[in-house]
Amino acid sequence: MEIIKTAIEGVVIIEPRLFKDDRGYFFESFSQREFTEKVRKVDFVQDNESKSSYGVLRGLHFQKPPYAQSKLVRVIKGSVLDVAVDIRKGSPTFGEHVSVELTEENHRQFFIPRGFAHGFVVLTEEVIFQYKCDNFYAPQCEGALAWDDPALKIDWRVPADKIILSGKDQHHERLEEAGWLFDYNENLY
């Protein structure tokens, strides 16, 4: 696997090595040993999958300690714009984001460490999205930011009138209003 560093330390894009022939392709989608050597030591405990249609936006979500989560995300079918926002107070990149297009063709994966809000929007008619988490889901520790917070300057690449949100995702606070954020100087692992 090739690790592509982003503008925010710790947030990386992973490009697998594909083996193609006339039968199709093969690639190793995850290796604990290689991930630990090239990215960081993380013990994933849960795999999730979702199916969504064009314009569905899920996010910007995170979990607070003691259930903070890292995520390793990828697309099986279709295409998404995936976004990680640094919400660690005191970080030199606080409030900044990294976005990457994940598609069934590029097979890229995106690693979002603890201390980041995460979201994605569907760019194709349908998407199947998979991700690994290094902590279990804990509803009492849920947190989220408004997807359309102008301070975040995220170009979701889907017109606002085509965005489809869950009832819950329609009412999140903006970064400046957030009463709880991560501390950059705290070890989240």
TrEMBL record:
<dbReference type="InterPro" id="IPR000888">
    <property type="entry name" value="RmlC-like"/>
</dbReference>
<dbReference type="InterPro" id="IPR014710">
    <property type="entry name" value="RmlC-like_jellyroll"/>
</dbReference>
<comment type="similarity">
    <text>Belongs to the dTDP-4-dehydrorhamnose 3,5-epimerase family.</text>
</comment>
<comment type="function">
    <text>Catalyzes the epimerization of the C3' and C5'positions of dTDP-6-deoxy-D-xylo-4-hexulose, forming dTDP-6-deoxy-L-lyxo-4-hexulose.</text>
</comment>
<comment type="subunit">
    <text>Homodimer.</text>
</comment>
<dbReference type="InterPro" id="IPR011051">
    <property type="entry name" value="RmlC_Cupin_sf"/>
</dbReference>
<protein>
    <recommendedName>
        <fullName>dTDP-4-dehydrorhamnose 3,5-epimerase</fullName>
        <ecNumber>5.1.3.13</ecNumber>
    </recommendedName>
</protein>
<dbReference type="Pfam" id="PF00908">
    <property type="entry name" value="dTDP_sugar_isom"/>
</dbReference>
<dbReference type="GO" id="GO:0008830">
    <property type="term" value="F:dTDP-4-dehydrorhamnose 3,5-epimerase activity"/>
</dbReference>
<keyword id="KW-0413">Isomerase</keyword>
<comment type="pathway">
    <text>Carbohydrate biosynthesis; dTDP-L-rhamnose biosynthesis.</text>
</comment>
